[in-house]
Amino acid sequence: MTDSPSANGAAPAKTGSRVRMSAAQRREQLIAIGRELFAERGFDATSIEEVAARAKVSKPVVYEHFGGKEGLYAVVVDREVRALLDRITNALTAGHPRELLEQAALALLDYIESETAGFRVLVRESPLMSATGNFSSVMNDVAHQVEHILGAEFKTRGYDPKLAELYSQALVGMVALTGRWWLEVRKPRKDTVAAHLVNLAWNGLSHLEAKPVLLTRRAK
Predict the structure, then answer these.
(1) The model's pTM
(2) Helices (DSSP H) in the chain: which residue ranges?
(3) Fewer CB atoms near the end CB (10 Å): N or C, the chain?
(4) Domain residue spans in the chain?
(5) Does residue 133 contact residue 78 with C-beta atoms inside 8 Å?
(6) Coiled coil where (predicted)?
(7) Exposure on the CB side of residue 45, measured as CA atoms within 13 A
């Protein structure tokens, strides 16, 4: 006999227990929920009780997978760090230094736009942030990549290559802080923000272009 609508037209309630998740599926679910909560509220305001409630499991299940809130947070942050670094590294494909700067700026803004929750997790301060797992450390890794780009350019232009590290930190810091601001206002458009960032970085205040355009987007 097949199920039929009840007299009031509502579908019949499903019977039986929920489909059980595998350990790997449950772990991924908890990580996703933890990511959302840490992004919304930060580490201190998030509790294991909330994570368990959203996942519809008991607290011991969360402890079994991560040992506690600190363990869950560490996994979430580590994943976001690797995701951001991979995105920026994979974006650096151009040959010209200015285009490389454009690609790096766009990669960060793309991450902010598409992985907003992850970015919020990274930029929120936490007492657990270690020297290898916070937003500053991620940006420092990015700066080291930019440093190699600037170092080669400095040599060809007769500048002191030892200053490449200083300039890379300044450039990446500028993009990162602008990204945090843009996360909230979301205007102007992403390409426009990237174009102006590169305009300032590449031309300097004394040679700003009135209407900068991304070289990597002109052909599109």
Answers:
(1) 0.76
(2) 23-45, 48-55, 59-66, 69-91, 97-114, 116-123, 135-157, 164-185, 190-203
(3) N
(4) 79-217
(5) yes
(6) none
(7) 10
